[in-house]
Amino acid sequence: MVVYGIPNCNTVKKSLDWLKAHQIDFEFHDFKKKGITAEKLNDWCNAFGWETVLNRKGLTWKKLTKEAQTNIDTQEKAIAYLIENTSAIKRPVIEKDGQAILISFDEDRYAQTLG
Protein backbone atom coordinates (compact mmCIF):
# COMPACT_ATOMS: atom_id res chain seq x y z
CA MET A 1 0.00 0.00 0.00
CA VAL A 2 1.24 3.48 -0.87
CA VAL A 3 0.10 6.71 0.76
CA TYR A 4 0.65 9.80 -1.40
CA GLY A 5 0.77 13.20 0.22
CA ILE A 6 2.95 15.80 1.87
CA PRO A 7 4.16 15.26 5.44
CA ASN A 8 3.20 18.65 6.89
CA CYS A 9 -0.49 18.33 5.88
CA ASN A 10 -2.81 17.80 8.86
CA THR A 11 -5.11 15.49 6.89
CA VAL A 12 -2.13 13.36 5.86
CA LYS A 13 -0.94 13.25 9.48
CA LYS A 14 -4.39 12.02 10.63
CA SER A 15 -4.35 9.36 7.94
CA LEU A 16 -0.84 8.14 8.80
CA ASP A 17 -1.69 8.09 12.53
CA TRP A 18 -4.81 6.02 11.80
CA LEU A 19 -2.85 3.54 9.67
CA LYS A 20 -0.14 3.20 12.34
CA ALA A 21 -2.73 2.77 15.11
CA HIS A 22 -4.33 -0.05 13.11
CA GLN A 23 -0.92 -1.60 12.35
CA ILE A 24 -1.35 -1.29 8.59
CA ASP A 25 1.91 -1.31 6.66
CA PHE A 26 2.39 1.37 4.03
CA GLU A 27 5.00 3.21 2.02
CA PHE A 28 4.83 7.02 2.03
CA HIS A 29 5.31 8.94 -1.22
CA ASP A 30 5.97 12.65 -0.63
CA PHE A 31 4.91 14.16 -3.94
CA LYS A 32 6.48 17.50 -2.97
CA LYS A 33 9.89 15.81 -3.05
CA LYS A 34 9.36 12.87 -5.41
CA GLY A 35 6.88 14.52 -7.76
CA ILE A 36 3.90 12.92 -9.45
CA THR A 37 3.27 11.79 -13.01
CA ALA A 38 0.45 12.78 -15.33
CA GLU A 39 -0.32 9.08 -15.67
CA LYS A 40 -0.76 8.71 -11.89
CA LEU A 41 -2.95 11.83 -11.71
CA ASN A 42 -5.00 10.52 -14.61
CA ASP A 43 -5.55 7.22 -12.75
CA TRP A 44 -6.71 9.12 -9.66
CA CYS A 45 -8.99 11.37 -11.71
CA ASN A 46 -10.52 8.30 -13.34
CA ALA A 47 -11.03 6.72 -9.90
CA PHE A 48 -12.40 9.74 -8.01
CA GLY A 49 -13.19 12.38 -10.64
CA TRP A 50 -10.82 15.26 -11.46
CA GLU A 51 -12.95 17.70 -9.49
CA THR A 52 -12.33 15.62 -6.35
CA VAL A 53 -8.58 15.30 -6.94
CA LEU A 54 -8.27 19.07 -7.39
CA ASN A 55 -8.27 20.61 -3.90
CA ARG A 56 -10.26 23.82 -4.23
CA LYS A 57 -10.21 24.50 -0.48
CA GLY A 58 -6.46 24.96 -0.18
CA LEU A 59 -4.35 28.09 -0.29
CA THR A 60 -2.66 27.10 -3.57
CA TRP A 61 -6.01 27.13 -5.38
CA LYS A 62 -7.25 30.26 -3.62
CA LYS A 63 -4.15 32.19 -4.74
CA LEU A 64 -5.26 31.80 -8.36
CA THR A 65 -7.28 34.54 -9.99
CA LYS A 66 -10.97 33.79 -10.58
CA GLU A 67 -10.20 33.73 -14.31
CA ALA A 68 -7.43 31.15 -13.85
CA GLN A 69 -9.71 29.03 -11.65
CA THR A 70 -12.51 29.17 -14.20
CA ASN A 71 -10.08 28.19 -16.95
CA ILE A 72 -9.29 24.85 -15.24
CA ASP A 73 -12.44 23.15 -16.48
CA THR A 74 -11.32 19.76 -17.80
CA GLN A 75 -9.39 16.77 -16.49
CA GLU A 76 -6.54 17.54 -18.89
CA LYS A 77 -6.20 21.13 -17.65
CA ALA A 78 -6.51 20.03 -14.02
CA ILE A 79 -3.71 17.48 -14.46
CA ALA A 80 -1.44 20.06 -16.12
CA TYR A 81 -2.09 22.43 -13.21
CA LEU A 82 -1.56 19.73 -10.55
CA ILE A 83 1.78 18.60 -12.00
CA GLU A 84 3.04 22.18 -11.57
CA ASN A 85 1.25 22.72 -8.23
CA THR A 86 1.35 19.48 -6.27
CA SER A 87 0.07 21.28 -3.16
CA ALA A 88 -3.31 21.56 -4.93
CA ILE A 89 -3.77 17.76 -4.99
CA LYS A 90 -6.35 16.60 -2.44
CA ARG A 91 -4.52 14.38 -0.02
CA PRO A 92 -3.76 11.81 0.98
CA VAL A 93 -4.41 9.38 -1.82
CA ILE A 94 -4.07 5.71 -0.89
CA GLU A 95 -3.34 3.01 -3.41
CA LYS A 96 -3.50 -0.70 -2.79
CA ASP A 97 -2.03 -3.06 -5.37
CA GLY A 98 -1.63 -0.12 -7.75
CA GLN A 99 -5.31 0.91 -7.53
CA ALA A 100 -6.43 4.21 -5.99
CA ILE A 101 -8.88 3.26 -3.22
CA LEU A 102 -9.14 6.27 -0.89
CA ILE A 103 -8.74 10.05 -1.09
CA SER A 104 -8.67 12.48 1.85
CA PHE A 105 -9.33 11.12 5.35
CA ASP A 106 -12.57 9.82 6.75
CA GLU A 107 -12.24 7.41 9.66
CA ASP A 108 -15.39 5.46 8.77
CA ARG A 109 -14.35 5.00 5.14
CA TYR A 110 -10.88 3.93 6.24
CA ALA A 111 -12.34 1.34 8.62
CA GLN A 112 -14.72 0.06 5.93
CA THR A 113 -12.12 -0.09 3.17
CA LEU A 114 -9.04 -1.14 5.14
CA GLY A 115 -10.82 -2.97 7.97
UniProtKB/TrEMBL annotation:
It comes from the Bacteria. InterPro entries: Arsenate_reductase-like, Thioredoxin-like_sf, Tscrpt_reg_Spx/MgsR. SUPFAM superfamilies: Thioredoxin-like. PROSITE patterns: ARSC. Pfam families: ArsC. Belongs to the ArsC family. This is Arsenate reductase. It comes from Pedobacter chinensis.
